[in-house]
Amino acid sequence: MLSSLRTALFHALNRRFFFGWVILAVTCFVMIGTGPGQSHLIGLYFEDISREMTFSFAADWMGGNRQTAVTFAYGGATFLAAFLLPYVGRLLDRYGPTVILSGAIVSLAATAALFSLAREWTVVAIAFGFLRFLGQGSLMLVCVNMVSQWFDKKRGFALGIMSLGFPLSMAMHPPICQWLIDLVGWRTSWVWLGVSTLVLFLPPILLLAHSKPELLGLKPDGVSANSGTAPGSGKETKIWGLTRGEALRTSTFYIITAGLTTLSMLVTTLHVFFRGILTSHGLEPQTATLMFTVTGITAAVSMPIVGQMLDKFRTDWMFCGGLLIMVASLVSVTFVSDLPSAVVFAIIFGINNGVTMTFFGFLWPRYFGRRHLGSIQGVGQMVGIVGASIGAIPYAIAYDRAWDLDLTLRILALMPLVFAGVALFLREPKRDTAD
After folding, report:
1. DSSP code of 320?
2. Which of 193, 220, 50, 198 has its CA nearest to residue 112?
3. pLDDT number for residue 224
4. N-term to C-term CA, the chain
5. Residue 229 pLDDT more than 50?
6. Which DSSP helix (H) or strand (E) runs through 67?
7. Which residues pair with 241 in a beta bridge?
8. What does the pLDDT look like over 74-98, one tens digit per residue?
C-alpha cells in the first residue's frame, strides 16, 4: 500500500513540475531534523551534562576538568563514529538514499530519547557518538547525496536550498530547547526531541523520497531520460563518476578534504562554545543564545546565494574565499564587547555556516561525478567529522587551564588561512579511467 501511494504521489506531482523540487523540499526539511546531532544543539547542554556527569575512572582529574572531560567524551566518540561513514557511503551506493534516510531518522529519534538516561561519562560518550554519527554524519550525507543525484547544472543552487534546513535548525532548536530545559529539565527535553524527530520527519521520507531520477525515467534538472522511456518506468540510464580508488589517487581529493576538515573543526569549536565565548565577553546567557538565531537567519539567506555563486564562478576561488570567511569568524569573535559587535560576529559566522554547508555538498559531485558518489562522500565526510571531533579540544583545554581564550582562537585562525592558499591549487581530476 505504501509503495502504491508513493507511486501515485510521484505521478500526481511530476505532472505539475519536476519532481526534483519535491526531493529538495523533503531533504531541506529533513536537514532541520539533524538538529539533535549538531553541535549548536548539543553544546547547549554541555554545562548541565558536565555538572551531573559521573566518572568510573580518572574521577579526580575529570572532576577537576569537567569541560575538558565532556569535550573529550564528545570529541572521542565523534572520532570513532566517523569511521562508520564510509560504510554508510557504500550502503548508499548499494541501496540508495531513501532506505538509508528512513533508517537514520528512526535511529536518531531513538538515540535522542534514550540520551535522557545518560549519566556516566562512558555512556555519555557512546550517546554522543550515536548522535553525531546519525545526525551530523549519516543524515547530512544522505541528504546531500540525494540532492546531488537529482540536480546537475543547478546543483550549487539546489544544495544551497537544501542546506537551509541547517540554519533553520540553528535558529529554532537552541531557543526551543532552552525553553524545554526551563520547563521540564534538560533530560526530559531530550525525550521530546526524540518523539518530535520521529513524528515530524519520517512521514515525508516514506511518502516522497526517491533515490535517483533515472529510476523514474528522468534525468537530473528535469530532462526526460529518453524519448522512449516514460517517467516512473524504472529504467535507469548510465551515470558518470570516478570510483573511490580513482578519487583517492588524485590531489584534488586531498585538497578538498583538508579544506573541509579545517572548516569542520573550527565551525564545531565555535558552535560548541558559542554561548560560553559570548558570555565571557560580557553578554547575558539569553542574549548569547539569541545570537544563534541571528547566525541561523544569516546562514539561511546566504546559502542560496553561495550556491548560485558556486554554479557561476571558479570553484577554487570560491573555496579559498570560504576559508577566509572562517578566518574572519574566529578573529571577529575575539573583539566582541557588546550587543552590536556580537551581532556583527553572528552575521559573519552565519555566512561562514552557509559557505561550509554548501561546500560540503557541492565539491564531491563537482569533481568526482555521481556514479560512486556515496563511497567517495563517505570517506570525505569521515575525515571531516574526525576534524569536528578534535576541533573543540584545544579551546576546552585552554578554558580549563585559564589560558588566554582570545589568543587561542586567533592562533586557530592560522589554519584556514594556510589552506585558503592551498585551495587555489584545486584542479579537475583526469577522467581517462572513468566510464
Report:
1. H
2. 193
3. 54
4. 38
5. no
6. helix 66-82
7. 369
8. 877 777 777 787 888 888 888 888 8
Q: 432: buried, middle or exposed (CB in 10 Å: 19+, 13-18, 0-12)?
A: exposed
Q: Which residues make beta-bridge pairs with 54?
A: 120
How far apart CA 288 and CA 277 sit, in angstroms, is 9
Domain coordinates in residue numbering, the chain = 2-216+241-423
| Averaged pLDDT score across all residues of the chain | 83
What integer pLDDT is reported at residue 108 of this predicted model?
95
Q: How far apart, in whole angstroms, are the C-alpha atoms of residue 105 and residue 87? A: 17
**What is the per-residue pLDDT for 289?**
77
Query: Given the C-alpha cell 535558529, which residue does it identify?
Result: 171
N residues, the chain: 435
- Beta carbons within 8 Å of 25's beta carbon, 6+ residues apart: none
Q: Which fold has domain 2-216+241-423?
A: Growth Hormone; Chain: A; (1.20.1250)
Write the CA distances from 212 to 147, 202, 234, 328, 370, integer angstroms.
9, 19, 10, 38, 10
- Looking at residue 66, what is its pLDDT? 78
The conformation of residue 124, written as its DSSP 8-state character, comes to H
Would you say 385 and 132 are in contact if contact means Cβ atoms under 8 Å apart?
yes
> How many Å apart are CA 97 and CA 377, to the nearest integer?
13
Q: Which of 319, 335, 313 is nearest to 416 (CA)?
A: 319
Going by pLDDT thresholds of 50, 70 and 90, the confidence category of residue 237 is low
pLDDT digits (tens, 9 = 90+) for 180-224: 988 999 999 999 999 999 999 999 999 999 888 888 888 888 765
* Non-local CB neighbours of 412 within 8 Å, separated by 6+ positions: 266, 269, 330, 394, 395
Question: Could you give phi then psi for residue 271, rounded to 5 degrees?
Answer: -65, -50
User: For the residues of 147-215, what is the DSSP string, one character each?
Assistant: HHHH-STTHHHHHHHHTTHHHHHHHHHHHHHHHHHHHH-HHHHHHHHHHHHHHHHHHHHHHH--S-GGG
Percent of the chain with pLDDT over 70: 94
Average pLDDT of the segment spanning 377-402: 75
Q: Please give the grid coordinates belonging to residue 359.
A: 561546500
Closest by CA to 9, choosing from 277, 290, 227, 203, is 203
